[in-house]
Design goal:
Layout lengths: L4 E4 L4 H10 L9 H8 L4 E3 L2 E5 L4 E5 L2 E3 L4 H7 L1 E4 L3 E3 L3 H17 L6 E5 L8 H6 L3 E3 L3 E5 L4 H7 L2 H12 L3 E5 L4 H16 L7 H11 L5 E8 L2 E11 L2 E9 L8 H15 L4 E3 L11 H7 L4 E3 L3 E5 L2 H26 L1
Parallel strand pairs: 6-8, 14-15
Antiparallel strand pairs: 1-3, 2-5, 3-4, 4-7, 5-6, 8-17, 9-17, 10-15, 10-16, 11-12, 12-13, 13-14
Helix pairs in contact: 2-9
């Protein structure tokens, strides 16, 4: 059976939007709005790959984002493509053929200027594993927690670990922390300062502030993003940035001030978000990843406390420049260890 369709890197926005909204697995990272956020943010360059048939029907969609460091020496070792929501295609013969054409064409355009392309799956795409392998994508396990929100508050609380549940109930009875929904651009600076301090403590790079400014400017008027701040007395002590699309909340960025760790601001802001999501008729909270199964990952322990459904949709990696990939991976681990050692000596 022959198929007649073509690749488009500039699909009609209405066709694009409709395809994502009506697809069972369409998520916020597939949307034109998210593409606009990335396109106007420093060190981010999004692309759109779509396959359209002779009847102007969109069959497959792929939204990789090129990310790199700001300065040239580092850019050479950091330029990679991340597909945050993976891809979409119609689950039919035409859809799979369209996806094959898409990845064949995409691979032909990648050169050694890009180190790798990574698919970060938000749903199960194991039925396409053979097709992806044919197109040089290697699978590896990657965990995530999905928290159901269509439950009574007491049922949601009962899923949370005992010690954390006890502290949340105490906070509900005798609140110390004020939760604030950021609705003004000036509050983005406060949010970013908290995130920056938290990411620096963990020796993990944080996206440029322009990403958050553009996300607020583009997504906030459409109720597609939620910036939440936790305040204790006169100090802001935690922040969370969550994306909103269809029936799901997506944990995007979060952090807290460790000077106030005894108050458990991260746990309290998380409970606030789950409660908010339930009251606003969202069905799921997607934690945004919990690491590789075989590796220790401290963040996983935090996320596990909230009693979500553990899934392993995995990720797929296509390495375009193997030598730079190896050098970059090793260098990043060394820099992380050095940063942690320096931080520990500074604290002492």
């Amino acid at each position: 059976m022959t198929h007649s369709f073509h690749i488009s890197n500039n699909p009609d926005p209405l066709l694009w939007k409709s395809f994502v909204e009506n697809h069972d697995h369409g998520n916020i990272f597939h949307t034109p709005e998210m593409h606009a956020v990335f396109s106007q943010s420093k060190c981010h360059s999004p692309e759109t790959w779509s396959v359209i048939d002779q009847n102007d029907r969109l069959l497959a969609l792929f939204n990789p984002v090129t990310i790199h460091a700001a300065y040239w020496p580092l850019r050479f070792f950091t330029k990679r493509c991340i597909s945050y929501g993976s891809y979409l295609c119609d689950e039919c013969d035409s859809g799979r053929a369209a996806l094959q054409l898409l990845f064949e064409t995409y691979n032909n355009t990648r050169s050694s200027t890009h180190i790798y392309t990574e698919l970060r799956n938000l749903h199960d795409i194991s039925s396409h594993r053979h097709l992806l392998k044919m197109n040089h994508f290697c699978h590896y396990g990657y965990l995530n927690y999905l928290i159901p929100l269509e439950l009574p508050e007491e049922s949601m609380l009962s899923r949370i670990s005992r010690s954390t549940r006890k502290k949340i109930k105490h906070e509900i009875r005798l609140p110390q922390i004020e939760m604030i929904t950021a609705d003004h651009p000036d509050q983005i600076d406060i949010c970013y300062d908290i995130l920056q301090k938290s990411y620096r403590h963990n020796c993990v790079p944080l996206a440029d502030k322009s990403l958050f400014i553009n996300a607020f400017r583009i997504l906030h008027p459409k109720k597609m993003i939620l910036f939440t701040l936790a305040k204790f007395k006169n100090e802001y002590i935690a922040a969370s940035v969550d994306l909103l699309f269809k029936n799901t909340m997506y944990g995007w960025y979060g952090g807290f001030d460790r000077d106030y760790a005894k108050l458990l601001p991260n746990e309290m802001i998380m409970w606030h978000l789950l409660s908010w999501g339930a009251k606003n008729h969202y069905q799921w909270y997607d934690f945004g990843g919990a690491g590789q199964p075989e590796q220790k990952y401290g963040v996983r322990n935090f996320k596990a406390k909230f009693g979500g459904n553990l899934v392993n949709y995995g990720r797929y990696l296509n390495v375009h420049a193997p030598l730079r990939y190896c050098l970059g991976t090793v260098s990043y681990k060394i820099l992380q260890k050095l940063s942690k050692l320096c931080r520990m000596r500074f604290i002492k």
